[in-house]
Design brief:
Elements (H helix, E strand, L loop, with lengths): L8 H9 L7 H4 L3 E10 L6 H16 L1 H10 L4 E8 L5 E10 L2 H12 L11 H14 L4 E10 L9 H10 L2 E8 L6 H9 L7 E4 L5 H14 L5
Parallel strand pairs: 1-2, 1-4, 4-5, 5-6
Antiparallel strand pairs: 2-3
Helix pairs in contact: 1-7, 3-5, 3-9, 4-9, 6-7
């Protein structure tokens, strides 16, 4: 794991303002069809078993035959994936660095890395800071995607740090999509909060999990929609 320098709100806004316009992204780079940051909740509301269920849920989704088929069919140039953990202000880290996946073997290797992730933090819930960190990590990565998505999961509303709304709006203006996976474990209105305050950008959506045991099902559907780039029927 490696930690990265978190972006403050002014820094995030400046970086996004200077980002390549969405229309010229593919022409300039386009290394992969999709660049995806999976931002995993490691705040104090998540106990160690619940954190493990998130890691196992992501890993099982990456091994899912339908997800593998979607990557092989819909992303001929592959998908660049990175996993970050987030909690309070200045509490973010890169747990799995950028990895290109394009077939069963590469997806299974990535799943093994995700499944083995240790937990290294426990703190407040600062979604805005998490978004700034994830966007900075996406912008600084070695890949450039035709589509760029930050996929943030969590079970609560932001209670610390910068507000997520302005970060979300700047990301959307730069052509970056922020999707949410709201875990209705303790708060049954988290999905509404994510829809109003967190998600944004092209084709943004919120997927819900009833609890942490339901996380794997929701993550699988979420990945399928993000990889295919079209709403599920």
């Amino acid at each position: 794991m490696r930690a990265a320098t978190p972006l403050t709100l002014p820094g995030a806004m400046l970086a996004l303002a200077l980002a390549v316009p969405p229309g010229s992204l593919c022409a300039q780079s386009g290394d992969v069809d999709l660049q995806l940051v999976l931002a995993v909740d490691s705040s104090g509301s998540v106990n160690f078993r619940e954190f493990e269920l998130q890691a196992v849920g992501i890993a099982s989704s990456l091994r899912d035959p339908e997800v593998i088929e979607a990557v092989e069919r819909w992303t001929p140039n592959g998908v660049a994936v990175s996993v970050v953990h987030w909690s309070g202000r200045s509490q973010q880290l890169v747990a799995v660095d950028w990895t290109r996946v394009n077939d069963r073997t590469s997806l299974q290797a990535l799943a093994a890395q995700v499944e083995a992730m240790p937990r290294a933090m426990l703190g407040e819930t600062a979604i805005g800071d998490a978004l700034g960190f994830a966007i900075d990590h996406l912008e600084r990565g070695p890949f450039r995607g035709a589509r760029r998505i930050v996929d943030v999961s969590g079970d609560g509303k932001s209670k610390a740090g910068v507000a997520p709304g302005p970060i979300r709006d700047a990301a959307a203006a730069a052509g970056i999509t922020i999707n949410g996976l709201a875990i209705l474990n303790d708060d049954l209105t988290v999905d509404l909060y994510y829809a109003d305050q967190v998600i944004g950008g092209p084709d943004a959506f919120v997927m819900t999990a009833r609890n942490y045991r339901d996380f794997a099902r929701a993550m699988r559907l979420k990945l399928l929609q993000e990889i295919r780039g079209a709403p599920l029927g």
